[in-house]
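Notes from the 1:1 (GR / supervisor)

We went over the backlog. Supervisor wanted to see one worked example end to end before approving the batch request, so GR pasted a single chain during the call. The sequence is below; no edits were made to it. Supervisor asked that the structure be written out right there so they could see what the output format looks like.
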Amino acid sequence: MATDMFKFNNVNLDVWTETYGISFYLSYLSRWPDLCCVQEAPSGRMMGYILGKAEGPSSEWHGHITALTVAPEYRRLSLARSMVNRLELVSDEHYKGFFVDLYVRCNNALAINMYEGFGYSVYRRVREYYGTLGVGKGGKDEEDAFDMRKPLSKDPLRRSVRSNGREVLVNASSVS
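Structure output shown during the call:
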């Protein structure tokens, strides 16, 4: 519901949460309402949300997690898992996607571990996806992203994933 956007502040203040303008949220809600979800406490306080979309040509048709965040005080309650499961189900059954993907900062080990626990794997590293801060630890830019993917039922041969994804480097301009 569009009025939920006015309750996002406690969630969006987290350092790892990407935030967007109101028109961005509204465009997702109008185009992919079934891939957007909020979790609200009985008190009415926002606990977390997920924004997703369906995109891609032919065999690259997939669900995409644009944003997933849970307020710090509501973490470790499996809220992220339940929202991701719902997005995967809708991407699989309604949109008939081959996989679900997401981008996560390469230095966000907590999120990477969480997504790996959900069955996602690194498909490729996208150079300077979030901009550039210059060379960081190990000669790698701290603003690179991992493109993580999880195959859905339409991809039984798992063509949408690869075992050496951390070694595959692409430029941000080559991803949509």
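Supervisor's comment: The first helix runs from residue 9 to 12.
Batch request approved.
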